[in-house]
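Quick review question:
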């Protein structure tokens, strides 16, 4: 694996290094030693997957409030997404900054998202599946979010929004 710093403090793109032959390829998607060598989270007790049937679907921007903040390692298994993270850590040198990346089944990129970041994505293809490794168990009372179009962050989505959860439309303006 190759770890690429992306300009937001503590966040990384993780590139697979595939070994290919006539059968196809084999690649590691996670290694405790390699993540540990970069001082990254190595314990992920919860693994989840999402499926979105329609191109243009937005999921997010979600996070868990303290003390249930979580690290996520996100990978697109089929289709493609525009994956966005926002640094919500007050005192961070990249506070309120966002970045977006295309993650797809084809490029096999993974996004490492530190605690204190909001995360969301927009599907760029129909029938898209996304895999998450999550460092904490889900705590419903700690679930929170910011709007996908909150002017505090100026996130630019590549497509018109075709579907979004009702709750994600009504997060209050960010007051940070």
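Suggested answer, residue by residue:
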């Amino acid at each position: 694996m190759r770890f690429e710093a992306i300009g937001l403090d503590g966040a990384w793109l993780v590139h697979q290094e595939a070994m290919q032959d006539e059968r196809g390829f084999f690649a590691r998607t996670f290694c405790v030693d390699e993540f540990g060598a970069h001082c990254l989270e190595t314990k992920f007790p919860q693994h989840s997957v999402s499926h979105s049937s329609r191109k243009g679907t937005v999921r997010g921007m979600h996070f868990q409030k303290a003390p249930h903040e979580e690290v996520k390692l996100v990978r697109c298994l089929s289709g493609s997404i525009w994956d966005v993270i926002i640094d919500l850590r007050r005192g961070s040198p990249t506070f309120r900054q966002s970045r977006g990346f295309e993650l797809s089944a084809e490029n096999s990129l993974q996004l490492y998202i530190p605690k204190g970041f909001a995360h969301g994505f927009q599907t760029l293809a129909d029938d898209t599946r996304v895999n998450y490794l999550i460092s904490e168990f889900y705590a419903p009372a700690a679930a929170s979010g910011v709007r996908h179009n909150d002017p505090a962050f100026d996130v630019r989505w590549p497509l018109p929004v075709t579907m979004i959860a009702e709750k994600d439309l009504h997060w209050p303006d960010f007051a940070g």
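Why it works: The first helix runs from residue 32 to 37. Helices lie at 32-37, 166-169.
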